Queue: 2 jobs
Job 1
Amino acid sequence: MKFIVAMLALAIAVLANSAHAEFKWQHFGADPYATSRAEAMKTRESAFTKLGFPKPVVDLLVKATEQPGQKTRIFVGDRFSAMISKRSVVHQDVVVAFGSPTRGMEYAAPAERWQVVWEDKTYVVVLPDVCNNWSSIITPNPTPTPVASGSCPNERTFMTRSYPQKNIPADLWARAEVLITAAANRDSSAARRPIELDGKNTRSADAYKTDAVSRTLGPELYKLPPAGDSVVFIRLLDPVMLTVAEDLGTIRLASGVAIKALSATQRAYIVETIWPADYKSPAVSDEFRRIWLFPEEWKNCTMVVSAIAP
């Protein structure tokens, strides 16, 4: 009898733990919730309810989705609070783990995105183009970083700059190579996942140490003339859960430079840029060349992220 009780206790413990285990979304389009966008829209109210949204949020999202959503992309390493798939099966704590793309290519799944704010949280729904699996992101609204009055004449700006390797002096490139090699040898995948610390979700910044090229050599690179025309993805991530709070789309570097103004509210998030695969830096994290600018790093009116082009 004691053995049976012990086994039941063990089974209950396993079930409790598995209920909170993350779900790896590995096969894009293999288990579609709906056969078309139109079908997904017809049943969206039911889907939003099953995804766990409160009734007032469901009503707000049903109204918001009457209009086309913001075009976005789903990348390897992205996270969702939940996702609904075929036969209305709901998966919790979803991490995108699509198979690796062909070397030299960047795989990003196109999708639509809507968001509403209710009480102290932001509620997001994402509808991928291929599988129509409604997915949710629920994040607390962060407190904007205070900005000293009059410290900057205009809105603070985020600048991206690229420098072709051939234009970098030999001694500077030698130091950059050391940092690039060190970054390549680090396991940076954990930087895309929240970890448990003292019972709270927090980020792992191991892959974003101060010896990254942009942070370490950025001031010296800034003295060089930028060059190149590139397209860079830019997004805002929740600083605690690491989920996408806002997709800002793409910015195009003209002659190696792009500038984007960010509000105080936007600066409360992590600014993530995703660079072309053939760049030398930043480091690769979960298949993509990403670099993050953390909220606490906003020290100047213009913050710069630098990358080394091929």
Note: Residues 1-19 have pLDDT under 50 and may be disordered.
Job 2
Amino acid sequence: MQNDQILDVCNLTVRFANGAVRAVDGVDLSLGRGKLGIVGESGSGKSTVGRALMRLLPPFASVTADRLSFDGQDLLDLSERRMHKLRGARMSLIMQDPRYSLNPVKTIGIQVAEAARLHLGHRRKEARDAAEAILERVRIREPRRVLDAYPHQISGGMGQRVMIGMMLLAKPRLVIADEPTSALDVSVRGEVLDLLDEMVEQEGAALILISHDIRMVSAFCERIAVMYKGRVVEELAHLGEAEHIYTRGLISAMPDPRLPVRRLKVPDRAALAKLESEGGI
């Protein structure tokens, strides 16, 4: 393993229903400092991969891998107590909708300061100061006012900034962002991605961006892993390299303002089924 390698995954498999359902089927991933995108339709297994890396799947999920290494540590061998120390401190997960990630009955300040106390060992005043500083860093105006607000009193874009700040407070080595902009207005999506890019770049961290939007991911990430039915069917640096029929179908299904069409194409399910029956997927 290279010294700068942060994540090394070989043959990751996730099964449900006593092994009858393979949600993730033999996924290989490697990542050092930089940005990797995982794309695919709903149900392709991309979010399950992210949760498997964080060890946040339910107890009835069966997770196996030939190798599941983070910073040289075997994640499958770690106790839940040690994983608890990693989450939020060395590994962070940013969810898609801050309305469901933030506690509605606690102020923003209490929640961000709690992260500072848990992961940085700060005392109350020091944690409050750290919370204010991170809100300033994610470009939230009037951070003191926002610290005293409840989640329902701020916009979705501001809530996502809060979540990004909270997750990056401890300067993690790996950040997994699961559809971080899908619940936001188009006008603020670019701002949130720019902010995420800036903070990850400054900390020299690895980022996994999970999304169904292959064009957005290709513009943001250095590499893209395309998932279909639990498998990575193709990995590419830019969309021009796409060869797999499913990847091409995803690209065709995305609207392109430069090339307007009356009706968008969809992946050829019959061709995919034939390819799968022949063992090509």
Note: The two ends are 28 Å apart (CA to CA).
